[in-house]
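Hello again,

I reread your note about wanting to compare the complex against the isolated chains. To keep things tidy I'm splitting this into two emails, and this first one only covers the full assembly. Below are the input lines as submitted, including protein chains and any nucleic acid or small-molecule components. They are followed by the predicted structure of everything together. The single-chain runs will come separately.
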Amino acid sequence: MMIRIALAGNQNCGKTTLYNLLTGSNRRVGNFPGVTVEKRSGRLRSSYRAEAEITDLPGLYSLFPYSDEEKAAADFLLSEEESPDALMIVADATCPARSLYLALQLAETGLPAVLALNMYDLLTEHGGYCDTKKLEKMLGIPVFAVSAVENTGIEALVGTAAGLEKRKSKPDSPDFSENAIVRRYLNVDTLCRECFVMPSTDSESRSERADRIICGRFSAIPCFLLFMLCVFFLTFTLGGGLMSGMLGRAFEALSTAIGDATAAAGVAPVLTDLLTDGIIAGVGGVLSFLPTVAILFLLLSVAEDSGYMARIAFIFDRPMRLFGLSGRDAVPLLMGFGCSVPAILAARTSTSAKGKRRTVYLVPFFACSAKLPVFTFFSSLFFGKYRIAVIAALYLTGIATGLLSTLTFRGKEVPSYMLELPEYRLPRAKNVLRNLSDRCADFVKRAFTVIFLASVVCWALGYFDLSFHHAAENESILTALGGLISPILTPLGFGDARLAAALFAGLFAKEAVLSSLAVSPGVSSLVSLFPTGRSVCAFLVFFLLYPPCLAAFTASKKELSSFPRACLHTLARLLTAYAAAAIINNIPI
Amino acid sequence: MTLDKAARGEKRRVISVGGYGIIRTRLLELGFVPGTEVTVGRRSPFGDPVEVKLRGYRLTMRISDLRLIKVERTALK
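Full-complex prediction:
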């Protein structure tokens, strides 16, 4: 059996960059890999001429768990069966004290280990130095000065790590008593004094100077608003307008070409209809929003990688406390603008069970990128030049409704907050692109699975009548089925069967609302489905607030570890959406 | 005196850490052990949390947690 090595280290020590460097494309990712949320594993790149399986752990300060995420990592490291054969401890050379504290703890587990002193180039660049030979002797494990970014020193590190002897026994749990902690820090002080020459830190670092503005008393909020404005501006104009528009026209052209070709070849009209009005209209309609979604993910990933997300947590901790949350919970919420699923999974970084439940409930109110195509489509159709204002209002309505509804949660104690402010750094293009390509691949996969299926089913329901003949207008199966649900929706102003069917499809994937409308017959006159402008608003608000897709429900169930509680959340969302839409449609303002 | 009383930019030395349970362990593990030098930094725009520099890194924490940390002035040079 090949040796299994786990990468363990603090947050922001460059662990992800090192992991990407070691594993290249030989990686195995779960369904929804968060930035540091899931346990990710991969085979060592073949160019290192050594065999090992590398597992990336979430960032840790200690093996004493403070959040579910840290608990998962600690449990994994200390369990008899699952624990890796050996450890590669990743330390930040520019901040040795904090890294060495964890390293000492990890060494106490008795697992065979090597220490990668990462970002060594940054240490020497500022006039610092480390006597690695001495450190090695004092720690009792091999030490390598490396830089994952510059790809220096990695060969030697990997060679030694892959050649480590596998652990023979169950790892020991370190001592967490006060005496043990103080003793460890005395050791850390000795190691730092004896082995490190640190650059002088009298002057303010570049990050601190940047934080004067970015976290400044009067400039922090304008900076944040500017950041959000940039995110949405780029998403809408570059992604939504330009690239998505081009893709959309390409799919239309494809649809016409296929229609002409099959007609010329004498293919049965039902097949032509399935291809053009079913599959291409549905799948293509959703795929054309890929650029929009990709740009949104790209920007969120850049914010995370650059260190700005930590600042957002710092800035908003106090206001978040009003809602029983800590600043740390702001990160999953903002990720919710991308996709609810990784955002819900990221709630496991929360420091209390109550805080986590609130975050899980709140995330879907931060409208995900799959809702964006629907907002864009409807608001361009109905509100013309006011469309951006309408979309912005929808986003704000979602956030406000979510925050207000957390006030009904019982228990007011607030999760604790302690967070490191990492140095700002340029996001690594490779890390960002890798994250982005995973998300895009997922989006495309959904387009060809869930959306494909939903499109074909919706098309068939709309195309055939109850005796499976080509249906005349208003006699299709869809109309019959929708007729059952639509009385419930009529008070909201959008009782049409096709809209009911589209909303139902949205429970599997939000973007399916659009695809199922696109394949429903007679929807070229979408405008006629809504009696008033007010009913369009009611529809959009209902769509904004009603339960998230099945994947997000599954993620909630997993994070809440309770099926009834996840169902309760779903019911609450449904009632909220219904009430909000009813108010908008019926109460004159 | 406790750390929340220290003004921005003032250096202090940790005497002891109060509180109990998880919070106490966490404070110790983050490096607030007796003898450690800490400097209070900027406040968040809403007044709380506050930045604290220790052991070469920047931590942000709430004022209520700073109250748990007893400190003394460092000897003047």
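For quick reference: The interface with chain A takes residues 22-26, 28-31, 33-34, 36, 41-49, 51, 55-62, 65 of chain B (CB under 8 Å).

B.
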